[in-house]
Amino acid sequence: DAGVIQSPRHEVTEMGQEVTLRCKPISGHNSLFWYRQTMMRGLELLIYFNNNVPIDDSGMPEDRFSAKMPNASFSTLKIQPSEPRDSAVYFCASSEQVTMYGYTFGSGTRLTVV
Amino acid sequence: AQSVTQLGSHVSVSEGALVLLRCNYSSSVPPYLFWYVQYPNQGLQLLLKYTSAATLVKGINGFEAEFKKSETSFHLTKPSAHMSDAAEYFCALNTNAGKSTFGDGTTLTVKP
Fold this sequence. Notes:
The complex is a heterodimer of chains A (114) and B (112). Chain A is an all-beta fold. Helix content of chain A is 0%, strand content 54%.
């Protein structure tokens, strides 16, 4: 298995632009998580899906952030408009089950907003 | 509410010395506990997990952790540190309520 695949690996964009991050979970995993990691705030859960349905989006910082999972093999995290404070590494992770199997993380997307 | 506390944001050991990374948890229901490792510029990787089958859990790269309910702890150990163990380590907790709660992480430095 190729693992959790994220694209792009690096993204540099100007403030105000729309950014879309993509994730392909491991086949057969029914839970998908989006995390953000920064030096100041550490690892933050933004949103998670179970069977393609958003279960908890309480971590989404504001309305500029949105996430979708149109099918079991694809999810997107969109920021519109982007701001410099959104600069971070964004990770996608998937799991066979929400509780006991642990997560498989992708390699992350390093976003820089200038 | 559930929580995870990692004691010590930075731990430094000499190569060949014992590694001990501390994790305490709080949970009102039986927890599932995990340790993850993150190398620079990579995602988190699962090291080991406790799911109530055995209190001493062995993971990859020679690491192990012991679940101690009476102490609400799940400390990570390795008998002999290697330079390649230098990374950030995260303890995490799941319950049947859903999503994982992660600790703040401990950065392990290994000195030659």
